[in-house]
């Protein structure tokens, strides 16, 4: 059994990664739903949560990797 936990978005930042081929990837996780699993705990005693989230990806590749128009 799991219980829905309400939440407020404090901040949703982009994480930026530069690949060795020169491509810049930006990723952002958008949280949609949080459930606390009743009666289940991590070894340190924290409650276990299940999350429903999406990842948004933005790509900026160098010109030499782009498809020619």
Strand-helix topology:
Layout: E1 2-4, E2 15-18, E3 24-41, E4 47-60
Antiparallel strand pairs: 1-3, 2-3, 3-4
What does this structure look like?
The chain is built from no helices and 4 strands. With 69 residues, it is mostly beta strands. It has strands at residues 2-4, 15-18, 24-41, 47-60. The termini are far apart. Strands 1, 2, 3 and 4 form a 4-stranded antiparallel beta sheet that branches. The chain is elongated and about 55 Å long.
Distance between the termini: 53 Å
For the biggest sheet, the summary is: 4 strands, antiparallel
Low-confidence stretches: none
E-strand count: 4
- Count of individual helical segments: 0
Radius of gyration, taken over Cα atoms and rounded to an integer in Å: 18 Å
Structural class by SSE content:
mainly beta
Along the chain, the helix and strand elements come as EEEE
- Tell me, what's the shape? elongated
Average residue-wise pLDDT: 97
- Approximately what portion of the residues adopt beta-strand conformation? over 45%
